[in-house]
Amino acid sequence: MDRLETMRLFLRVVETASFSQAARLEGIGQPAVSKQIAALEDRLGAQLVNRTSRGLSLTAAGQDFYDSTRRLLADLEEAEARVGRGQSTPAGRIRVAISAGIGRLYFVPRLPAFFEQFPDVTVDLDVSERHVSLIEDGIDVALRIGHLADSTLIARRVGSSVAATVATPSYLQRAGEPKTPADLAHHDCIAFLFHGEPQPWNFNGPAGPITVEPKGKIRTNDAEHLRAAVRTGIGIGHNASWLHAADLTAGTLIPLLTEYAPNPTPIHAVCPGGRRIPGRVRVFIDFLAEVCAQDPYLRIR
């Protein structure tokens, strides 16, 4: 393993705080990782990492080497992307975390235009409804819907998500139309599960916020299945309006309780903090923002 690869491996160990996790992400065995870091310490003549039963921590020398190495590799990566093969445009692979519904419906269909503009950029899509750990999972940028709790991330707001309460005409003919959020207690409500828990439905009322715990015949942790369940007339959905945009436009779903609509939820593109954002990642974030700005269901409100 050459010097640059060893430096990259050292960064991976530090950022995951785990030899085994770094080995998994690099596709090598844990003994090989330990051997390379030990060889790096021998070459530098300094201990970089404290190894204890509770995990890893950096020594003072290790922190200094980490900060310098991170800057050096970021500059090198940027230079390679800028001048490699005589190109002046961004190049390289981006790993993107995105949820299935919004990715399939809005961003994947527009990727051909992105690749036409940046032919030397490649994209790995990590599709999941969970919030991945950007550093541990090696993610360059994640699209996150909701208010951000992690202040260590680099975030750019690219859009908004507006919730809509919807049902098919056939369901409303059978069960009646709710006139207030309280009426939902007498309806089949299709809940979205996040980490195994049904997400509450939020509304704005004349006296302030209203929260409803959805109850019904079906719950799911997948937006596509939720959309399908609403479309078949099983019950009422209360989800991002972009998920139901085509049906709302076509009139196959009816919007309900519009006077109680909640406030928009922000959509952010987030990157790991404490590092320079490569050019290829910056242009992809610009792409995410452009897609949202051009769509009435996703633009910033």
Describe the structure.
With 301 residues, the protein is of the alpha+beta class. It contains 10 helices and 15 strands. The chain has helices spanning 3-16, 19-26, 30-44, 60-83, 100-107, 111-117, 169-175, 223-231, 245-250, 279-294, and strands at 49-52, 55-58, 92-98, 121-127, 141-145, 154-161, 163-167, 191-194, 197-198, 201-205, 208-212, 219-220, 237-240, 254-256, 265-271. A 5-stranded mixed sheet has the order 4-3-5-15-6. It has a 3-stranded antiparallel sheet with strand order 13-7-14. Helix 1 crosses helix 3 and helix 1 (3-16) packs across helix 4 (60-83). The model has no long low-confidence stretch (mean pLDDT 89).
Key attributes of the depicted protein:
Arc Repressor Mutant, subunit A; 10 helices; D-Maltodextrin-Binding Protein, domain 2; three-stranded antiparallel beta sheet; elongated; alpha+beta; five-stranded mixed beta sheet
